Amino acid sequence: MSLKQNLHNLKEKYKGTKMAPAFNAIHTFLYLPNEVTHVGGTHIKAADDLKRTMNIVIMALIPCLLFGMFNAGYQHYAAIDNSLRADVLANFFTFDNLWIGIIKVLPLVIVSYGVGLLVEFIFAVIKGHEVEEGYLVTGMLVPLIVPVDTPLWMLSVAVVFGVVIGKEVFGGTGMNILNPALTIRAFLFFAYPTWMSGDKVWVYDAVERTGTADAISGETILGSYAQNQEVMYSTFDKFMGFIPGSVGETSTFLILIGAAILIFTKIGSWRIILSAFIGAAVMGLIFNQVVAADIITESSKFYGLMNTVWWEHLTIGGLAFGAVFMATDPVTGSQTNKGKWIYGFLIGFISIMIRVFNPAYPEGVFLAILLMNVFAPTIDHYVVQGNVKKRLNRTKVKTA
Amino acid sequence: MSKDIRIKKGLDIKLVGVAEKNTTKSSQSSVYAVKPEDFHGITPKLVAKEGADVKAGDTLFYSKSDERILFPSPVSGKVTEVIRGARRKVLAVKIAADTTQVYKDFGTKDADAMSAEEVKNHLLASGCWPFVKQRPYDVVANPNQAPKAIFISAYASAPLAADLEYTLAGKEVELQAAITAVSKLTEGLVHVSVGANTTSPLANLKGIELHKVSGPHPSGNVGTQIAKLDPINKGEVVWVITPQDLVVIGELLLTGKLNLSRTVALTGSQFSKPAYVTAISGASIADVTANNLNDDNTRIISGNVLSGKEVKADEFLGYYDNQITAIPEGDDYEFFGWNKPIFNKISTSRALTFSWLTPKKKYDLNTNTNGEHRAFVVTGSYEEVFPLDIYPMQLLKAFMYKDLDEMEALGGYEVAPEDFALTEFVCVSKQPHQKIIREGLDLMREELG
């Protein structure tokens, strides 16, 4: 008997039992199910399903992951021997760098998926619903938005918290208010702040070596600006991502490629991505004008980030990654096309605002997105009310 | 001044098996059936008893809520069986047809000379009233209400739909008689929509407001046309009649006979020769499709692939349907079907699906759902195929959680299940949109009247 037939027989055997969702999750991963259209609906359906949709997002994230693995090694060795930075291209794609990525980044991916999917399976079995695909993307996003040296136990705790509190208590995929990946990030940020900021966590081994003769460090660009320090990275480095930061968010170039994939496949909303960039640019320009008008001078603690040229904000920190991969989450974002413009704009705008005014933890993107996640239903409400009013007016014109 | 209808949002689903333009007369079936479920929301009260002899046009049952609404026998013969389901619900009334048909004589009428009341009474008495359907709620019209307009869509944009220009050719006289009569039922206009650049037999009728329609499906759906021309507000009613039913009404007026025969398109890849046949409403599917159908693991649909009803070969042609579609069942697994590139299915995304490269290609789609049922996740995809000024996902959700105020405010009066056929087709979460809308409309009708 073929694999297909065997699995079919097993599915029939498990049908109606507690373990059915767990089995089906694996079965449908291998085979598109044999389900046919039901009474009272269309007899044919388009080719896309949620698995395919999620899969595209994962594929768009793969370049960032691979780059992040190389970058983990590169930042480590470059922190030890600064001369490596002289010729980035020659010293970046090396096996030594990749090896650091394999031993540091891959475990983050494995733990994120392992723990997260375990929680999902448990909930599916307890509640008797199918395992939904939302975590496939969350599980890939999480390792990309944490510092490379995040301890694995810490990540596990955060993932459990994020999946249970961020998603399952609301009813699972499609019902959550906050982006689960960002919930996980926020949990880490507030529970273990020393591991989420500073000049050590962004570079592999820097924490271990603290206080020894071999001590190394790697401050993020945002961290440097927040302390009004000069940074040594060129615009090229920043754009291509040869800089310290969370694992997958450094390369604006690859993120834009990911954005192109999402927009081309119509999976990600171009409205949100574009308006987030516009919002960030507007806030950046406002701050630039404030500096130009001499309202803020070099002595101010806000000077470093306010003086950052508006377009440079896009290349540093997590703004691009957040706008492209996190703000576009359809479940937690705005659902109406008009609402998406407002939602995206405010994410960009508030990100830069938090960045500048909160120099202690100079990354505002995830807070901005979480904030707007909460307000997205409100935005949609007013957009939809516009439609409702139009309908009411139509009646009034008639009766008048 | 007529107003043309041009829409951009939508999707033409091109399938294999377009009916060739030649018509054969299907052999007369020995058994016909009228199914009350074809008339949504009607509770039937049986008149014809088992064993009774009926003429074509004799009443089989009437509506419990309004006993003037009669449902006629499509053929003359003997009532052989009343099939009942749970709680003695009438599922079908079967009639064994006589070899020579005898028609009940309703008398010829001059439509011009009839008053509105006479037209209404004549349609009710002759069993033609069920052809008049109403929006909101998409049910047989309530004869006590006055419609603000009557809409007739003579442009079929649904997948593989019968070409009305072809099936109605030469019926101008009947159509004109029917239009003259039904136009008396409304103070408002009789809107007739035809395809742009066509020579539809409806294009030159008198007493109508003609509109030319262009754009992808659902441009031919009457719901789309109502929304573009004269949207329904709270408390308003419009009536809808299909052109093929107008022909029946016209023939009734001109000859006094109720002739329910129509040209039916046999479409879809499972027909060896997709073509047109003439058949009488309620005919047995096996007889209509005889010697043409490959029925090995086939889904037979009375109607089109989006909104039609599944029927078995031993069941019957739907009362309103002018199309039978047969497509392969998709009850098989597909290895890694969720992530491999897809060339042989239609998609509105480009997520490793390539139908956007070949917009003219005809596809042989089967009934596989291409994925499992999920909660609503993806946003923005419905809007691309939904031309009404309504937020489709928000309306669907309101219909699911049954908040009557919201259902009303978001446009519940303006929609019919078929308006949500395309959103259901493209739905990534495989939600049953038309079922949600149908159940919500039933609730609204019950609670809000």
Low-confidence stretches of chain B: none
Provide the residue-averaged pLDDT of chain B: 92
Distance between the termini of chain B: 35 Å
Count of runs of 4 or more consecutive helical residues of chain A: 18
User: What's the total number of strands of chain A?
Assistant: 1
Helix content of chain A: 55-70%
What about the largest sheet of chain A? none
Task: Give the % helix of chain B.
Answer: 10-25%
- The portion of residues forming beta strands of chain A comes to under 5%
Provide the domain count of chain A: 2
> What percent of residues of chain B are in strands?
15-25%
Overall mean pLDDT of chain A: 89
- CATH class descriptor of the domain at 5-11 and 107-255 in chain B: Alpha Beta
Under the CATH scheme, which architecture of the domain at 5-11 and 107-255 in chain B would be assigned? 3-Layer(aba) Sandwich
Number of strands of chain B: 21
Distance between the termini of chain A: 74 Å
Molecular shape of chain B: globular
Q: Greatest chain-chain interface?
A: A-B, 62 and 77 residues
